[in-house]
Each structure stands twice: as C-alpha cells, then as structure tokens.
Amino acid sequence: MTARLETMPTDWQRALAIVAHPDDLEYGTAAAIAGWTDERREISYLLVTRGEAGIDTLDPARAAKVREREQRASAAVVGVTSVEFLDHQDGVIQYGPALRRDLAAAIRRHRPELVLTINHHDTWGGTFWNTPDHRAVGRAVLDAAADAGNRWIFPELGDRGLSPWNGVRWVAVSGSPHPTHAVEVSGGIERAVLSLLEHRTYIEALTDEDPESYCRAFIDQVTSTAADRFGGRPAVSFELFPR
Ligand SMILES: [Zn+2]
C-alpha cells in the first residue's frame, strides 16, 4: 500500500483532460497541469456537463452559466485556454456508446498522447462513495482512448472527417485509491489554490469556511498525501493505464 510512486512519463507534448464537472480538475490535478503548461506542453479541457446541478441555491439554467464562466477562469489560472463543454446532463450522465462516441470524437480532434481524468472507482480512498457521473465518465474515458483509434467502432466519426487517432499512450486517473505514479508540483501549488478558488460561487454554497482557507487546506492535503509516497516532495498522484 505504501510503495513508492513512480515518476509520471515526461515524453509527451499534448494532453486532453476529460471530466464530468467544472471543479473536478481543480481539486488537485490543476497543480500538475500548472507545471506542465510551464513546460510549454499543450493541455485542453473537456467538460462532459456544465455542473448545472451542483449548486443547491441556483437553478440549473443559471448555474450552468456561472459554472462555465468559473471553469474557464480556473483553467486560465493554470495556463489552459482550450475549454470545451459537452451537453450531457449533470447528475445523470449515462455510461454507454453515446458517451464513448462523444469522448472518442474529442480525442480524435485533439490527438493527445496523454489523457487525464479523475477517479472512476466506486469510492474515494475506500471511504466515501463516488458519484455516478465520475464513475461513468472515468470508465468511458478509459474505453474511448481505444475507441478513438479504431475506425470501425464509430464509423460515423470518420464520415464527419475525424480520422482515427491511436496515439493515446496513457490514461492517467487522479484521485484514484490505487495510484501508481506521481508528479512533483511545488511550482504549481499556489496556482492550484487560486484555480480552485475561481469556483467561488460553488464553494461559497458548499461551505461556510473562508473560501481561500478551504482551497488551500484541500490542495495542501492532496499534495502532502502524495508526498508521503514520493520522497517527501509535494506531488499529485495518478493511476496510470499505459496503452
Ligand atoms: Zn465532479
């Protein structure tokens, strides 16, 4: 359980991060992304929903607009300007061919070597039950990395001019209870905190804590947990699936 985490691969240039909701990447992954954009790697975000069901006090139509705006701002903090949204419905994303096709299409358009997503397992750390959206999207991302390279699985994508892309070399899952790899994030922690803080409307509805203290405590906890298995260096961990 406490084996040392391997270092994340560095021989790649393009990554596509695919998650269910605005804020999913900001609870840790963005610290790694900040470092990668510093190295002039190209990172794009794909959000499967606009997180419209995420704020109890805001109706979904208004929440969708607010959360899209906050997501674009949080991406910009870590150097990401390519942010796209699919229109699946927040809370009831369905795992299946339609979702796999949408994700395969995005992978073909972006042609990433590394695909990022968040925890698709049943629980967070074996303790807290994960959401159905995270499980559905994470599993579909792992499947779509292969689907994107097979011209016969979704032939209609080829008809739309999206050629197969079989160049995904890894899918990296952050927040996994079974991490295998990590990346050192000392230089990205401050921006990760500010990036999470951009989801201010969401966070203010979520907690009575001071938003900045809440964000800082969360990012510190994530990066120090990974540090315990990465030579004491602040890090973000991933479960890496090579292809
Ligand atoms: Zn989420």
Instruction: Give the cofactors and ligands.
Output: zinc ion
Kindly state the number of beta strands.
10
Please report the first level of CATH classification, the CATH class.
Alpha Beta
Order of helices and strands: EEHEHEHEEEHHEEHHHE
> What composes the largest sheet?
8 strands, mixed
How many structural domains?
Answer: 1
Give the name of the CATH superfamily. LmbE-like
Poorly predicted runs of 5 or more residues: none
Protein name: GlcNAc-PI de-N-acetylase
Pfam family, one: PIG-L
Keywords: Zinc
GO biological process, one term: glycoside metabolic process
Note down, in words, how this protein is organized.
Keywords: Zinc. Pfam families: PIG-L. InterPro entries: GlcNAc_PI_deacetylase-related, LmbE-like_dom_sf. The chain has helices spanning 29-38, 60-77, 97-110, 132-147, 155-159, 189-197, 200-206, 211-227, and strands spanning 6-7, 14-19, 42-47, 82-85, 114-118, 123-124, 128-129, 170-174, 181-184, 235-242. It has 243 residues and is an alpha/beta fold. The chain has one domain (6-242): LmbE-like (Rossmann fold), CATH 3.40.50. The longest helix is centred in the first third of the chain and has 18 residues, at 60-77. The chain is globular. The mean pLDDT is 97. Zinc ion binds at residues 20-21, 24, 134. Zinc ion is lined by residues 20-21, 24, 134.
